[in-house]
């Protein structure tokens, strides 16, 4: 997921205010269409298949992915001259992922992460650039890795999957080209790229970002494999890898809430393409979605702790004022 994060202090346009809800509605429409075709049984089976061992495995994999993503963020923030502690980055990333999972649009957590970090340092614009760069770099590596893996598995056998992946890349490039037609957008992009070029200037930074992104993608794919095992899917490593890649890529789309809808649709298509059946894909994707939500529960605790601290700050200030 890559999203333009608004700077603090600017008025939010009405269209921008409704965009998250429009994206959520699109994802929910996909989910409703799947339910209309298959019924609720595959979803209920996926929920019922979640077990304690699967939850433990998902939590460990989520911790690895979060730590790697936080490392990626710290590297790029540091290159842009921003202080970011290790514990602070991990906690903020857990909070960000949780908010992205439960709120519409899939980017609210990243917006909050950028603004909170920026306000702490009084450098919101630079902190925003760091988050945009970090998320964009992660998505680029994820897409490139998916193409490489699918190609290694065998282009002839999985040509449809390769076509979808390349098509997705083509859509991204086309949208970027359309945006560049506007002189204002072109000047803004050139300016931002000039600023962000410094973040990726060194080979060490690029290698660190790629390594962290590979860890994140691998952890997500393995979590989907855990979900498949929990639901009793029996498949070859090639079939499992392709299905997992399709579901993980779809989960990163800023549609729906927490990836629900696009993920199940992509899993149904991928499982059907490799001969495992669309229903099995929906069941596995549902289990994956539930496991991810549970694994990100630390983010909910961090959000709750932050809200409690904010409630107590005025009270403490009032006490000091009266003494």
Automatic annotation (TrEMBL):
Keyword Cell membrane annotated: yes
Thylakoid in keyword set: no
Protein name as it appears in the record: Flippase-like domain-containing protein
Membrane topology: Multi-pass membrane protein
UniProt-annotated location(s): Cell membrane
Organism: Microbacterium salsuginis
Main location: membrane
InterPro entries: L-PG_synthase/AglD
Origin: domain of life: Bacteria
TM helices/strands, residue ranges: 50-73, 140-159, 165-185, 206-234, 240-260, 267-284, 290-308
Swiss-Prot/TrEMBL keywords: Cell membrane, Membrane, Transmembrane, Transmembrane helix
């Amino acid at each position: 997921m890559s999203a333009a994060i608004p700077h603090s202090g600017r008025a939010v346009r009405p269209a921008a205010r409704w965009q998250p809800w429009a994206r959520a509605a699109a994802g929910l429409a996909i989910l409703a269409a799947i339910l209309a075709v298959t019924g609720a049984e595959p979803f209920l089976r996926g929920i019922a298949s979640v077990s304690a061992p699967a939850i433990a495995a998902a939590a460990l994999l989520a911790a690895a992915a979060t730590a790697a993503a936080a490392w990626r963020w710290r590297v790029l923030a540091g290159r842009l001259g921003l202080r970011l502690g290790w514990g602070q980055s991990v906690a903020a990333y857990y909070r960000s992922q949780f908010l992205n999972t439960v709120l519409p649009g899939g980017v609210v957590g990243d917006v909050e992460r950028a603004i909170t970090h920026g306000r702490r340092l009084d450098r919101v614009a630079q902190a925003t650039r760091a988050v945009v760069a970090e998320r964009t770099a992660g998505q680029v590596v994820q897409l490139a890795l998916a193409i490489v893996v699918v190609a290694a598995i065998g282009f002839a056998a999985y040509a449809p999957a390769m076509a979808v992946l390349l098509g997705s890349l083509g859509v991204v490039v086309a949208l970027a080209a359309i945006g560049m037609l506007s002189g204002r957008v072109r000047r803004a992009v050139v300016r931002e790229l000039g600023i962000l070029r410094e973040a990726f200037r060194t080979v060490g930074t690029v290698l660190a970002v790629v390594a962290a992104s590979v860890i994140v993608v691998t952890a997500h794919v393995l979590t989907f494999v855990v979900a498949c095992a929990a639901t009793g899917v029996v498949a070859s490593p090639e079939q499992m890898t392709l299905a997992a890649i399709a579901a993980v890529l779809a989960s990163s789309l800023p549609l729906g809430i927490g990836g629900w809808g696009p993920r199940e649709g992509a899993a149904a298509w991928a499982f059907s393409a490799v001969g495992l059946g669309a229903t099995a894909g929906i069941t596995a994707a549902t289990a994956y979605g539930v496991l991810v939500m549970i694994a990100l529960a630390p983010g909910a605790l961090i959000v709750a702790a932050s809200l409690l601290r904010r409630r107590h700050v005025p009270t403490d200030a009032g006490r000091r004022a009266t003494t």
